[in-house]
What does this fold into?
Amino acid sequence: MRKPLENLMNIDTAFKQTRLIAILTLLSSFLFCGMVMVVAMNMVTKGKGKIYITNGFGNTLTAYQISANENRKAEVKAQVRNFHALLYDITPNPDEIKDKVDQILLMGDASVKAFMDKRGDSYYKKLISSNVEIKYELDSIKVNIDVYPYKAVQYGKEIVQTQVGFLIKNLITSLDLREVARTDDNPHGLLIGGFEVHKNNRIQFVEMNK
It folds into this structure.
C-alpha cells in the first residue's frame, strides 16, 4: 500500500516539474520573441530613410532621407540671407542690377514690390552714375517657425563705398515667409511678405587712405 502511494507522489512531483518546465519554456519563448521584435524594430528604424547609391565607378555611397521640413529653420535663414544679399549687395553694373531686381521680385509678394517701387529706378541710376558700390554684411537672423507665416528679423549692415571712404549703415528688417511650391527660381519654396525696414541709419564713416 505504501509503494503505490510513493508512486503516486512521484507522479505528482514529476507533473509539477513538467508544468514548471513548460511554464519556463513558454516564458523564455515570449522573452526571446520580444527581444527579437525590439532588435528588428531598432534595425528598421535605423535603416529607414537610408538608401545606397553608386557613383558610376563601382563605389557605393550611403544617403539618408529626411523630412522636407526637418531643416526648415535653416532654409528660412538661407532665404532671408539670400534675399538681403540681392537687395543690398549692389555693384554699378546695369545688367547685374536688372538680374537681381528680377530675382527679388520673384522671391517676394506685394510688400517687396512696393519697396522696390519706392526705391525706384533713380536709386540704381544714381549708383551707376556715381560708380558707387554697396556691400551687405549679415550679423544675425532670428527666426520663429512655431508660427505661420514664419517670422524673421534680420540684423546686418549696409556698407556704401564712395570715392572718399566707406559709409556704414545699420540695417534691421523684418519679414514673413509663406510656403509655396519649390521651383528653380525659389528652391526653398518660401515667399517673402510683410517686408519692413526698421532701421537703416548711418553709424560710421571710414575715410579711405590717400
